[in-house]
Amino acid sequence: VATRYQQELDSWREPARYTFSHVFLSTERVAEMPNLMAQINAENLSPDAARLLGAPFLSGYMFRRQSPEQMTRVFGTEFAEQVSATEVRAGAWIGPVSSVFGQHYIYIEAFEPSRALALEEVSVRIERDLVREGEEQAVIDWVEVAMAGYEVRRS
């Protein structure tokens, strides 16, 4: 199990996770974003209070433990790439961040950096995979031995 874990260490990476809320402005209103950001910062608005200054966003305003892949599904690739490329810290605003819908000013509530899962977290899965692979190989070996006793003739 430990050997397989080391061989496949890259496959046991947990992506970074972001917990955030956002203020949204549609593409028609992106020119308002600098003033909106300035107002939020000047008045030190909470994310809930700041949200009221923006436009409605159908997918919601609070997102918990989102990986870049999950953000891509909701907001599009550009959004996920911008957030991932930004140095974030909990309790800070970032933005503006563009999406397929418009622009967002994002409040980072929590950030969990990417990490390799520990052996203890994945050992059961690795053991299950090894058992399955052993069973598959046993069937292949049995078929080869069984077939060795037969001669195939074409008529």
Give your account of this protein's structure:
With 155 residues, this protein is an alpha+beta fold. It starts with a helix and ends in a 7-residue tail after the last helix. It has six helices and six strands.
Main traits of this protein?
single chain, 155 residues, alpha+beta, four-stranded antiparallel β-sheet, 6 helices, 6 strands, 44% helix, elongated
Write the layout of secondary structure elements.
Elements lengths: L1 H6 L5 E2 L2 E10 L6 H10 L4 H5 L10 E5 L1 H8 L1 H9 L6 E7 L3 E11 L2 E2 L2 H30 L7
Antiparallel strand pairs: 1-6, 2-3, 2-5, 4-5
Number of helices: 6
Question: For the CA atoms, what is the radius of gyration?
Answer: 25 Å
How many extended strands? Answer: 6
Please state how the strands of the largest beta sheet are arranged side by side: 3-2-5-4
Classify the beta-strand content into a percent band: 15-25%
Main beta sheet: 4 strands, antiparallel
Q: Identify the overall geometry.
A: elongated
Summed over residues and divided by their number, the pLDDT gives a mean of: 91
* Low-confidence spans: none
Q: Give the end-to-end Cα distance, rounded to a whole number of Å.
A: 50 Å
Portion of residues within helices: 40-55%
Helix and strand succession?
Answer: HEEHHEHHEEEH
Structural class: alpha+beta
